Amino acid sequence: MKLTDEQTRKLNTYIIEITGLKAFQVEHTVELLLEGATVPFIARYRKESTGELDEVQIRTVEEQFAYFSELEERKITVLKSIEEQGKLTPELRERIEASRLKTEVEDLYLPYKPKRRTKATIARERGLEPLADIMAAQELTAGTPEDVALPFVDPDKDVPDAAVALEGAGHILAERLSDNADARAMVRRLTSEQGIMTSRVASEFKDKVTKFEMYYDFQEPLKAIPSHRMLAMRRGEKDAVLYLSITSPVELILAGLKSRLILRCSIFSPLLERVAEDAYKRLIAPSIEVELRLESKERADEAAIAVFARNLRELLLAPPAGGKRVLGIDPGFRTGSKLAVVDATGRFMEHVTVYPHIGEGRIPQARQDLLRLVQTDDIEMVAVGNGTAGREMEIFVKETLAGAGRQLPVVSVSEAGASVYSASEIAREEFPELDLTVRGAISIARRLQDPLGELVKVDPKSIGVGQYQHDVNQGMLKKSLDGIVESCVNYVGVDLNTASWALLAYVSGVGPSLAKAITRYRDENGSFGSRKALLKVPRFGAKAFEQAAGFLRIRGAENPLDNSAVHPERYGVVEAMAADLGVSLAQLTSDAAQVDRINLKRYVSGEVGLPTLTDITTELKKPGRDPRSQFQTASFRDDIREIGDLKEGMILQGVVTNVTAFGAFVDIGVHQDGLVHISHLASRYIKDPNDAVKAGQVVKVKVLSADAQRKRIALSIKDAELDGKRAN
What we know:
The protein has 728 residues and is of the alpha/beta class. Strand 5 (337-342) and strand 6 (348-354) form a beta hairpin.
């Protein structure tokens, strides 16, 4: 739908009221989005236009604009349908046009929406609508309802007596009440505010142990259910273990409906009370329960997706080990461990398979192969996958290196999603001749060098940092996670001459098709010498260049600004700064003292304000810098390899692998992550969301309990810190 200027203004007004942002911020942001600008580009390079909105605020504007655009489209359809029926009044049009919620529009449309054949439809066909009108008027105070209904008795129309006539008229009134937008809004509000979500176990599972035991007889206010419990119960319902229902404040709701239907005392009052009960139980309650269950599911989805997105961001922005020569190991027992070498740029060199865990006779050869690779390829770090045989392989490597007098960092690297990458189209394109497991070893090595560059090749859902990720709305999940990946890639920046097409695809304004065109051009013509050379790539036009250029880096470029976050559209400003200082661009980008001499106010213009100029000078002090944190890794105890090795009270180092609404999972090197319940996180992690425990974070934990049979480990960060303070 192409919006008119008037519609755009209307939508902007909605967004301004909902978000509380200033009018110019919303208007300029919407204008940029409609022009095809990406969120990272707007946030980074259009600060003056948006009043320095960040990515979260810009995405909120984007989401609200999409919602209200869909709402406006629906209003047009609804108004057209009612008008074609000849039933559109000025008052109804005004209410529909003023609606801010999709549910309100649908409630107003309900009386005019084409219906399947209902009891009310049949009653109308039998000529009972006039009787329903008499009952609704409630003007008669003498006589009986049966006397009033007698003229409508007609055996030929299947109305044999007055009782049937009154029942049919009641069905018409029940449907009218059910279709009343205000009545439905009242029922929805009371059920939402006071409803209880109830879970009961299916009879066949009553005496069985399942993972849904805590929900066998469970109740919780609908509005208070946390995301993880809602999704867990829905999973139980999907598996046919649980029955879910919403218990409503029935008496309160019926009182409200009766007060709307019964306007005065009449001979029809007792009948109308029963009509109100029938309307609620047969028509309103089932549909409102479906609506509210869907709404609660959507809220749970949003919360779960937010947790997933937060975890994914932390993993993608995990500190890189950098340009080191790495030996990656995909460990295994019977099938052996695959060892693969990559150079400092991530280029695959060679591989070998060793079998150190299937008999003493294979160990000497395994040690020899390992040491040969370390020596021949001048290995600087070893990355060991943390899956099956991971701890055993890590110990083997450390012992082998120590025995040979070599001191190298041996790092445990998450394998989550590595097998998905190994079998993917991207992996086949990169290494068509290699076995899947060798591709996995290469990926593990590269993950150590640059987690972001490698993880973008894997479907985010397969990285294993979500909460019920297969139960949430998949379209919403994909959109959110793609947004996170896009944000992270552009935040860090991408080396134009070494990045894979999978990484380039997430650069602002690029996408998969252009990313492949870039890598093809690079393969055929060699490395890019400048950002401007991108314009030689087929179909890479001026708009794509505007959106992408600032996020792409070229090391060793003739123009040093090509290896910075300074956008080419602002090169002229920087050149003027250098000229005014009497230095070259190379000197300006390599000497922070020169940058400190710049008087920013001198370069403020109609197009460039202080926010952009401040960003430029910050970048000039450290051009091409990596904004990610310093690389660090956890050190697992060599004597702790299995759950059985754990003892209550042990203080261990671990890596946070996943954060959920109820706590955090931590890898402590025993093949099974332990759970730090939210009550055992340090207080600062709970009170301050900005200082929350993060996926990939190295933490100290105290072992509270370890159940080898059930594979459950309870850990505490809070107690580990308390013990540390006492020791000091």
